């Protein structure tokens, strides 16, 4: 005879186990965003099917593992473009993207402007800030 509390406890334990595995996936994406990652490989590493991982990841974090990986890559790309010492193509490959056109499309979708325009705007803003931060000669 099985008590209802045992079933609830077992479900709760499974949820906690899934959340632990989802955090491992998220941490791996955060740390290895520049590496070639796919949902199947991420799922195998935590002993889940790709479909189950995608479903659980979306339920826990509000987006699919692929969307999370893409967002992390674009966030890193904005930081690299802001520095101004790398071109768009080098930044694209540095963050783990393999297609410049896909990178440009995703970047534009998430940031609101193409990466080249973002880089120009960011470096121009830095130049203007440098001008204003220099001490002025007394008149």
Automatic annotation (TrEMBL):
Residues 23-121 form the HTH araC/xylS-type domain. The keyword Cell division does not apply. It comes from the Bacteria. InterPro entries: AraC_XylS_family_regulators, Homeodomain-like_sf, HTH_AraC. The keyword Transcription regulation applies. Keywords: DNA-binding, Transcription, Transcription regulation. SMART domains: HTH_ARAC (SM00342). Pfam families: HTH_18. Coiled coil: none annotated. This is Helix-turn-helix transcriptional regulator. It comes from Streptomyces siderophoricus.
